[in-house]
Amino acid sequence: ADPDDLALMAKEGNVDAIAISTYNGVALEFVQQVFVELSKLELKIDVLIGGRMNQIPSGSNTSLPVDVTEQLAAEGAIVCHNAEDAVRALLQRQNHSATSDGDCVQ
Questions:
Q1: Predicted confidence band of residue 105 (pLDDT cuts 50, 70, 90)
Q2: What mean pLDDT is reported for the chain?
Q3: DSSP label at 26?
Q4: For residue 1, what are the CA distances in angstroms to 19, 44, 74?
Q5: Which of 10, 37, 60, 85 could form a disulfide with 80 if both were Cys (CB 3.0 to 4.6 A apart)?
Q6: 29-68 burial, b for 16+ CB within 10 Å, e for fewer?
Q7: How confident is the model at residue 102 (pLDDT cuts 50, 70, 90)?
C-alpha cells in the first residue's frame, strides 16, 4: 500500500499500530512518508517495521542500499528484527495503555 492509503486505512480502522515489512532499499523513505501521512490525518499511531531495514542513498552512483536501522528508530519507528520483537513491542504498548487507563495488568 502507498503511505497515504495506509494512513487512511489506519484512520478508518481505528488501529493502534501499523506493522510494515519492507523490501530491499526503501525502508527509510517509506517510513518517513508514512509518518507524514499520519501527521496530515492527525494520527499518532505506533509504526513497527521489519524486513530489510536499508535504503538506497539518494544521489548514489550505485544501487547498493545501506543500513538505516538507527535512522528508522530516530524517525520514531519501532524496529523489529524478528516476529518476537514485534510481539514484545505490542505487548509493551498494551501494558502501558492498560496501566495508563488505570486497569490492572497481570
A1: very low
A2: 88
A3: B
A4: 12, 19, 23
A5: 85
A6: ebbbbbbebbeeeebebbbbbbebbbbbeeeeeeeebeeb
A7: very low
All three cell numbers of 45, joined, read: 499511531
C-alpha span between 99 and 106 (Å, rounded): 10
Is the pLDDT assigned to residue 86 strictly greater than 90? yes
Q: HSE (CB half, 13 Å, CA atoms) of 48? A: 20
Q: Is pLDDT at 2 greater than 90 in this prediction?
A: yes
| Rounded Cα gap, residues 74 and 72, in angstroms | 5
Amino acid at 98: A
C-alpha cell at 82: 524478528
- Single out the residue of 96, 50, 105, 95 nearest to residue 73, CA to CA: 50
* Cα–Cα distance measured from residue 40 to residue 8, given in angstroms and rounded to the nearest whole number: 10
